[in-house]
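Tokens in:
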């Protein structure tokens, strides 16, 4: 388990993140959890990338082996008699 130093930076509290787990971004999202804080990389252009991936999605999905037969008949009266 890694540990990190907490220190004051101006009027804010900061954490010195170990080099082996540093973020490759400018900002992080800070989420408070019942056991502490969770830091999540903030992706600058999330929605643009999401829309780009949505447009690239292949919508020509074919559904095969559809069983459109009627359901089996059951004798429910005999079961509950």
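Residues out:
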């Amino acid at each position: 388990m890694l540990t990190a130093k907490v220190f004051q930076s101006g009027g804010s509290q900061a954490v010195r993140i170990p080099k082996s787990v540093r973020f490759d971004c400018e900002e992080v999202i800070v989420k408070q959890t019942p056991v502490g804080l969770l830091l999540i990389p903030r992706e600058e252009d999330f929605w643009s990338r999401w829309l780009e991936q949505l447009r690239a999605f292949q919508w020509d999905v074919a559904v095969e082996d559809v069983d459109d037969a009627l359901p089996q008949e059951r004798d429910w009266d005999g079961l509950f008699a």
